UniProtKB/TrEMBL annotation:
It comes from Rhodoferax saidenbachensis. It comes from the Bacteria. InterPro entries: TAT_signal, UCP028101, WD40/YVTN_repeat-like_dom_sf. This is DUF1513 domain-containing protein. It holds the Pfam family DUF1513.
Length: 368
């Protein structure tokens, strides 16, 4: 669906309606130490992954196809320097272990027959293995694979609890939470969504040792796809949603965020007067920072945030707002032409020029 980017004037008007005034555009604050950001991007028709630093041309590795998540790997006796794992966008067919500082590919791994990546991974508790979301190309079944962090080879696999598993995370208790987006994609049909009328999105909690399903959670609206996850310190889970309703008007009023608190999964609905400008039902990324959940809207051009209770809506305007990353009190959002770096919940960010927009996700490595 083609979506026009909102104008600066319309977004400022929306911010004023929400009581945010011109601060939503972010008056420049006192300088914050610039970050190093691990991300992916497109340059022409070529996909890349690597490091972005303010004022410098991104340095990275050329990829055979677009990347999605980039996962920082823990150091060890075998890995004393910074390394990262690059996961192909779904339905993905490669993994890459890379040295982002030198912009060097260290190890490529082609996916096994009839196995396709869902674009995300999570480290195991001991840091020796990692879990990936995958799809069985023959049956369409969602899978979780555990892989060796050195060889990238698959050690075992078990069902994800649904179709189209996307983001996942390891909970402090050692269980896995998996967002089964409910949408089937296969390489022979590319990004075509094969089962929209039958989609069944859910959030599944799995025993990471046995693979057993411990709990499943669903929203009442079956057209809401649960996609990306962020965990608050109190255990509340924020889930970014992407609406797949056949009618535009349903997508334009659909929620951007759901919360899992205890055993209750619920949407955070807009008040009638609060639906932000140009909203089309597509939340790109989510993170937790400064005591709040932040969800980006790339097509609409803003970032929205809520408390862990799902109230206190705030809007920060940034055309093309997509990738989010947080590190302590700092959090960052990348847009079409700018990246905004915030300290805490201040409305005044440090603004950096972005000549090559980032792809879906980013991770802050350190501050220079």
């Amino acid at each position: 669906m083609a979506t026009e980017h909102p104008t600066r004037r319309s977004l400022l008007a929306q911010a004023a309606l929400l009581g945010l005034g011109a601060s939503a555009w972010g008056r420049e604050a006192a300088p914050i130490a610039p970050p190093r950001v691990l991300t992916a991007w497109m340059r022409g028709e070529q996909s890349w992954a690597g490091l972005w630093t303010p004022g410098q041309t991104p340095r990275g590795v050329a990829l055979p196809a677009r990347a999605h998540q980039l996962l920082v790997l823990p150091t060890s006796a075998q890995r004393q320097q910074l390394q990262a794992l690059v996961l192909a966008r779904r339905p993905g067919e490669y993994l890459l272990r890379m040295d982002p500082v030198r912009g060097k590919a260290l190890q490529w791994h082609t996916m096994e027959d009839d196995r396709y990546l869902g674009g995300h991974a999570a480290l195991s508790a001991n840091g020796k293995t990692f879990f990936t979301t995958e799809t069985d190309g023959e049956s369409g079944q969602g899978l979780i694979a555990e892989r060796d962090i050195h060889t990238l080879e698959k050690l075992r696999e078990f069902p994800s609890g649904g179709i189209g598993p996307h983001a996942l995370l390891l909970e402090p208790a050692g269980t896995l939470l998996v967002a089964n987006g409910g949408i089937l994609n296969l390489p022979e049909t590319g990004r075509r969504k094969l089962n929209i009328g039958r989609m069944d999105s859910n959030l599944t909690r799995l025993d990471a040792q046995s693979g057993q399903v411990m709990a499943q959670y669903r929203l009442s609206d079956s057209y809401l796809s649960l996609r990306h996850l962020a965990l608050a310190p109190d255990g509340t889970l924020g889930i970014a949603l992407q609406a797949e309703h056949p009618q535009n008007q349903d997508r334009q009023t659909s929620p951007a965020l759901a919360l899992l608190q205890g055993d209750t999964l619920r949407t955070v609905d807009w008040a009638a007067s609060q639906v932000p400008s140009a909203w089309d039902g597509y939340a790109g990324d989510v993170c937790f920072a400064a005591g709040r959940f932040w969800a980006s809207a790339p097509h609409a051009g803003w970032v929205a945030s809520w408390s862990v209770q799902g109230d206190g809506l705030q809007i920060r305007v940034l055309p093309g707002a997509g990738a989010l990353a947080s590190a302590g009190e700092r959090w960052l959002v990348g847009g079409d032409e700018s990246a905004l770096l915030y300290r805490g919940n201040t409305p005044q960010p440090q603004r950096y020029s972005v000549t090559t927009p980032w792809d879906n996700h980013a991770a802050m490595l350190s501050f220079t």
